[in-house]
Design brief:
This protein is of the alpha+beta class. The protein contains eleven helices and 15 strands. The protein has a five-stranded mixed sheet. Strands 10-11-12-14-13 form a five-stranded mixed β-barrel. The longest helix has 22 residues.
């Protein structure tokens, strides 16, 4: 039975929470995350009043992801302005004027860094990393500029009535959206209830192009995602009441565009039926208490709530990232029993195994902060500790860095 109040007790001190309701409306990213691990989706969106006042567990900042967010926000800002001014491509005189009015591409990037930085300031897990993140992003501004320029250079827009307003609601007639280019437009479908935010929708009398920008490497899921966008467009009875089909799907990467074949009516019907099935399965998965956890050696070390996941630690042991393939040096996660203080900034610990028969290996923890809070006799989970394992003696030293986090395990 599920408790009426949906509250749950965490293994981590000060992290008890309340399970969230299932999503009323699905998106592609929502479905993918639930299918990857229902427990991760639920923990990331549960309420943790002991941690902070917002819904969901605060995400752990990851620089590559933040870099991608800055690049995506830069593209969104410039393309919105270009669409609003009726530009056809980034090399036109109108586009040059748009960039000049925005203060130049570097200024747009700086603004994007500041915007994303302001959201991180509210994140209790980001405080120690903020100066380093800002410094790293500023240093990579030339790279951000090159990537943005390359992606913008391939943008081909259609001027039209849509350019007079950024609000789609002002140019929807009996036939739906008029010809033009639309940046960051939301498409909606009923049965199943889905939405998708398309980076760029380009309409003319004979064409309907959907463009989705990706700031990282190619992945098969990107092609599936734009095909889902094609389905949402065909099923959106407000923006597209006559069911026009997409004629071209494009995934835009920093160094190239990938053209995906647009699905026809039969393919769209099959895709819709598949989404109905997958959405129902995902909803069922979220109803379990506790939600199903799916441990995986590749994806679990990237999960921002892995310190809360008992299955992660039970599956991979006291040093899960080490058992995933790291041998002598790198960053890892450790569950440790604190034995004693070894010096002003060091503690002698032992790995705290979950499985009978595991050895309690000695581990020396080093930190720059003498007030780290490692109490002898306590069990802690140390996330992202920089470790070194001596290849001859197999002794392990773990250094606490700005990327590291320490959580105390509740006594049982």
């Amino acid at each position: 039975m599920t408790p009426d109040d949906e509250s749950f007790t965490s293994e981590i001190v000060g992290s008890n929470g309340q399970w969230p309701p299932p999503p009323e409306v699905f998106s592609y990213s929502t479905l993918r995350e639930i299918e990857r691990c229902p427990n991760q989706w639920m923990l990331r969106r549960a309420r943790f009043p002991e941690v902070w006042g917002q819904t969901g567990y605060p995400d752990l900042p990851v620089l590559p992801a933040i870099f991608g967010d800055v690049l995506h926000l830069t593209l969104e800002t410039v393309i919105r302005a270009m669409v609003g001014s009726g530009c056809t491509d980034s090399s036109s005189e109108e586009a040059v004027a748009v960039l000049r009015n925005l203060g130049g591409l570097t200024a747009v990037i700086s603004s994007a860094i500041a915007t994303i930085g302001s959201t991180l300031e509210r994140n209790p897990r980001a405080s120690r990393q903020l100066p380093g993140i800002h410094q790293a992003l500023t240093a990579r501004t030339p790279e951000l500029r090159r990537r943005a320029q390359a992606m913008l250079a391939r943008a081909r827009l259609v001027p039209g009535f849509a350019n007079r307003s950024q609000s789609p609601g002002r140019h929807i007639g009996d036939r739906g959206l008029a010809s033009g280019s639309f940046a960051e437009i939301t498409l909606r479908m009923k049965n199943p209830s889905w939405l998708g935010r398309v980076d760029l929708l380009i309409l003319s009398d004979n064409e309907c192009r959907i463009v989705d920008y990706k700031t990282g490497a190619e992945h098969d899921s990107h092609q599936e995602q734009v095909r889902v966008y094609a389905l949402l467009w065909s099923a959106d009875d407000t923006l597209n009441p006559h069911g026009r089909l997409a004629t071209q799907l494009t995934v835009g990467y920093p160094d190239h565009d990938l053209v995906v074949e647009a699905p026809g009516q039969a393919e769209l019907a099959a895709l819709r039926a598949e989404l109905v099935r997958r959405t129902s399965t995902a909803r069922d998965a979220l109803a379990s208490r506790p939600p199903l956890a799916i441990p995986d050696a590749q994806s679990c070390p990237m999960c921002s709530v892995r310190h809360l996941c008992a299955q992660y630690w039970h599956t991979f042991g006291a040093a899960p990232q080490l058992s995933a393939g790291l041998e002598h040096d790198g960053f890892g996660d450790f569950q440790l029993l604190v034995s004693q203080r070894n010096g002003p900034r060091s503690w002698l610990c032992h790995s705290s195994p979950h499985t009978a028969g595991q050895n309690a290996d000695p581990i020396l923890v080093l930190a720059g902060d003498p007030e780290l809070g490692l109490e002898p006799g306590s069990t802690v989970r140390l996330i992202n500790g920089r470790f070194h394992r001596d290849p001859d003696t197999f002794e392990t030293t773990v250094t606490v860095s700005d990327r590291s986090e320490i959580y105390t395990v509740a006594a049982t």
